[in-house]
Design goal:
The chain is mainly alpha-helical. Helices cover about 75% and strands about 0% of the residues. The chain has a single domain, classed as Four Helix Bundle (Hemerythrin (Met), subunit A) (Up-down Bundle), CATH 1.20.120.50.
């Protein structure tokens, strides 16, 4: 997996959500770097756990935002969040079951692609919905 660089094109216009998305990509890049450096599995797993906990918290923030907005695709979006967390558990199992670097890199790459797909296909739809309601970053800049 190549390092994934945050792009302004991924912004949904909610500062806290956008910052979390950038952090998630940074976590994945760090995990990939650790795998390539053949770091101890426990070090890698600690970063995977941090990413998992951060994603859980982030998903709660997104859920609150979507509820506050009356977002019509809330249930479907929540199902995608559950799927992403389940896939991260699969990634963690690859690390626990053995230190096969190529399998771990494939798992990390898959997770990176899933996260980007989620941001582009699902989270940017929230931006479209917000724009349709006349909301901009200046009116809604942080999830409380």
């Amino acid at each position: 997996m190549l390092n994934i660089v945050w792009s302004q094109a991924f912004r949904i216009g909610v500062r806290g959500i956008d910052e979390s998305h950038a952090d998630h990509l940074d976590f994945l890049n760090l995990i990939t770097t650790l795998i390539r450096a053949k770091e101890d599995t426990s070090v890698i797993l600690s970063q995977v756990e941090r990413l998992y906990l951060d994603l859980e918290s982030h998903h709660q923030d997104e859920d609150r935002l979507m509820i506050d907005l009356g977002y019509p695709e809330l249930t479907a979006h929540q199902a995608v969040h559950t799927f992403l967390l389940d896939e991260l558990k699969v990634l963690a199992r690859h690390f626990v079951q053995g230190n096969d670097a190529s399998a771990m890199l494939r798992a990390a790459s898959t997770m990176g692609h899933l996260l980007l797909d989620h941001i582009i296909r699902h989270d940017l739809a929230i931006l479209t919905f917000m724009q349709g309601r006349g909301l901009t970053e200046t009116r809604l800049s942080m999830v409380d």
